[in-house]
Amino acid sequence: FGLNPLPFLAVSLGCHFVSGFVVARIARQLDLGPRLALFAGVLSVAMYPSLTTMFWASAFQHVSAILFCLLCVSHFLTFLERGTRGHQAASCGFFGLALLSNELAASLPGVLAVLAFGRREGSIGDRAVATARRVAPQAALLAAYLVFRFGVITQAPMHPAYALSLGWNLVENGARNLAYLFQERWWFALGFAALVAAAQLPPNPERKRSGMLLGWMLIAALPTLGMPQILPRMTMSLEAPFALLVADQLAAVIRRRPALSSRFVETGLVGLLLLVIPYGVLYQRGSQPEGELNRQLANALEHHFPALPSGSCVLVRLDPALGWDDDTLFIM
Description:
By secondary structure, the chain is mostly helical. 68% of the residues lie in helices and 2% in strands.
């Protein structure tokens, strides 16, 4: 698309909203009702991490990786239900595409293992053996990718922002992930805590589903915890399981109030969605897509250096005194 930011934005938005439909499908596969499935799908695409990130053309790797991960999970759940090899093959294919998009998808076999274990009945030993068999293709694909990635491809110097470390940053990054999910709104976090507390009151026959979704969130967060710092785009992989977990907790609360009318429940769900959408971020990012900045910078270079031949490489050092990070930018 060259320096035109609109096509990049259109593709990112398209993939992002398709992800919402896949989240709704996963919710139905996990036995959530159609209203709560729709709620989970809309919530997953209306959260702070993705809305503040997906306008960057360079963030498409995260948007596409999340879409492929969700498609992998959906086909894997169908495979668990029907035992069809075609869906297992599709799950492996989408997992491969997710790995090629972003390496944060490497935790996905762990997510699939949690789902397979939770959906299986029987003793712990039998469930563990059956889970290992079902996740074996994805685990083998991950092993092959890691061998290729670290054993074949020549290693480039790693940027300090992505160098893993173990220490207090694990706790700080975990807190930052939660802060991004709750959009740093204290009432959102307190409301979710109250919802979880209310959902745990007996009877709650779906605690197994809640455990699966919580395990999905924890495993998806593992690759980010060792980073020196957490950025919103690194939290995008937690949005889908978080939205599903919110819908799951709402299902437990609604189940205890069978007298509630469907219109009352639907109005409450729509009102909750309207409350949590970060309108300020959406307006700020939508009114000035980040790709526009690159085009303005390129136009400025062409104005000052009109004689540069086509294909020239210009190295620009951005001045930290003007608010930029101390980094360099290459423009071809």
